[in-house]
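Usage example:
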Amino acid sequence: MDGRVLIPADQFVLKVHSRCDLACDHCYVYESADQSWRGRPNAIPSDVVSHAAMRIAEHVKTHELSRVEVVLHGGEPLLVGVAGLRAIIVELESALSGLCRLDIKVHTNGVLLTERFCELFAEHHVGVGVSLDGDRTANDRHRKYRDGRSSYDPAVRAIRLLASDRFRHVYSGLLCTIDVANDPVRVYESLLELEPARLDLLLPHATWDAPPPRPAGTGTDYADWLIAIFDRWQAGGYPVRIRTFDSIIATLAGGDSGTEALGLAPVRMAVVETDGSYEQADSLKVAYDGAPATGLDVFTHSLDFVLEHPGVAARQRGVASLSATCQQCPVVSSCGGGMYAHRYKAGSGFDNASVYCADLFKLISHIGSRLPHVAQATGRAGPALSDDALAEFATGRGGASAVGQLTRAQRSLGRGLLAAVYEAGLASPVVGPRGREQLRAAWQVLAVADADCRGALDAVVGHPYLRTWAARCLAGLGFVGEAGHDDERLAADLGHLGAIAAAVAVRGRDRARLTVPVLDGAVHLPGIGRLVVGLGSPGTGGEARAAIEVEADWVRVRLGAGNWRLSRPRLLAGEPCLAEACTAEGTLTVGTGRPVAWEPVRMLTAPGIKVALEDTDPYRDCHQRPAAPRLSDEEAGRWQRSFSAAWREIQLHHAAFAPALAAGLTALTPLAPAPAGSAASAAARQGFGAIGVALPDDPVILALLLTCEFQHVKLGGVLDLYDLFDPADERQEELLQGAYAQLAASEFWRVRAGLGDRDHTEAAEQLERLLAHTAATVETLADAGSLTSLGMRFAERMRIAIAPRTKIA
Amino acid sequence: MVPTEELRPAFPSAMADLRDIPLAEMPALSLDQLGRVLGRVLPGPVANPMPSGAFQSSI
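Running the assembly step on the lines above writes:
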């Protein structure tokens, strides 16, 4: 090696069959300069599979990889047959079991794909990508059987099978090789009709010696073709992921490309042929005969040898490995010189710009100009705290301004979470066509509200349990199809995006029609309240979705045969509101229909503070103790009296904490009663601004709980922005959170002890105990060795903050 | 107030700022990309990320 650090591979292309049942005239495997396929075994022998699996496992152990991907490729991999593929998959799974996560994909032309293959792939969670070049005309231009017959019908039949509810979760996407003779929009829309999760639009492999056809003569035929699709894709609200566009957008925003065809990310891939030889990138077959060869094989060489091969190393050096032309290009970080093979020219080898250089420049420039906000916003530093705010938090305090900065960061996060759940929902196999349509309708309402009434959107995005909901959805999606996971509940969770949009519409829009799930027996408007209908929760049978129509003065809810209307002004005022039964046309009906009740979110108020008493949100049960059920009016009254008294205590005796609480505490969630004699309270990392409390008898204790729990809220917000410790050391957050809350507790008891009233002795004892404990915890943190430099400074300020508190006020 | 000099810009936030991206433009960011932005604050997988520089060839 030349002194560089070896970059391990995490993607392995395993050629399981070297022949194909089609004879596509644009195939780079058989029709290119490299003809090495002729001397290789048809099907991969079992000893090659076992050695390849062993080499991958060896590589995983050597480099401590947490995840690898294996692509079963060809030729046509399905020619191996169901039993043969099963043996290969099982061999890979067995070799990597317990070592790392293994994702297996298969790329096929689809014509042999049957239910039996799909069942195998579903059983082993193997993602399936199918090659199809567009509509029948486009596809038949190249993708034919040897006798000239079209492959379109069998390929589309296979794709529809994959898109069915039964197999959708293994349908990875479609791969389309571009022919600029085809109409781009027709190609795009015909592929979109087949509901892929992802589209790959591939430039046909070409070199300067064998350039691609350019019938239009513009010099940018391929950019123009792709731009036509990009514009359609953008106008349609990005209905499918398109890897080329995603990669350009990601690199414009400072991230990595998702394809070897773009970007400067080092190559982390190796190819194993059916005879066990290692090859470089498959696409090199278009350069010259023998171009992909390494002279290495699975029987005698570890994968590290492949990664040290000069041809691979050349593609791991980023911009330094590019031609002088590329190095000076303003879009080089997005383009990365294009696909390595496309740079080839006899004489100068790969030291050239891509044969698609003009196309890539035009396409990247176009996308950058059409998405200026994305490129600018994600490319710059995040919503960091001001120096003063960070320093204030480090002392255990933090005023209204500092907390306001955390709140703004959470709004940024909330917007990203909304988008993530929306995209994840569209891509999720548990969401059918109707569900996807409902998600799009919800997103449309949110996007319009963002432009027209940002305040309404901000109010809903700022709700503490929006993040709890999003985290639940996104975590759930990682386990789709796993035994024991409740897909019905996950679909309902994803559908809650409609309820969020409905709440935004009620707050800010004239009209909207949305579909929402019935959760916990209720139709929810997050942050506003819920309509208790008693039926239809996921898993309980009955209608699990309700329709909501927002009008100027009314909000109408339809569930099965039931129709109700609610006064929109009263909803917004948080007033008790009668759900009036009516006909579908809106005429009031008396004495008929299912009894329902509107339960508004009540507000706790005191001078200078207003906090939601959140006992309706379906995602509030995220604290360490179970959330209490909806409070009676009498119980809510007791909460209000206790809250008022607690706030008086804070304002009177602990005023330093009041501004932050008034600025950042947005919800109090009643928890199930604590065991007799003990207090119970909690703040959830995923619920910024909320505190869960089992209401104590003594308002002073409530004041203490609010003060201490809000420490966790603040620190959680800081930790969202900054790494204060090594994330791998899970104890650190617990220790830091504990010490941080104790800072407030010790301050609280120091003040109480200074009051000299009936609890003086108890307060003094509490103070002494807490100070000792806090100091010890801070020392432990500092000594643990896993604090970052910022974490060390943070802990040091906490230590300084403790020192003066040894004196009773 | 504790002096703040030592906490100055050496510590940029790792979270991208999404406040200025119109919600309508947000889905232009792939789930992979959003996952990289949000992954630090969420438990569990946000998506099955595509390896960077991943293999891309049709057959």
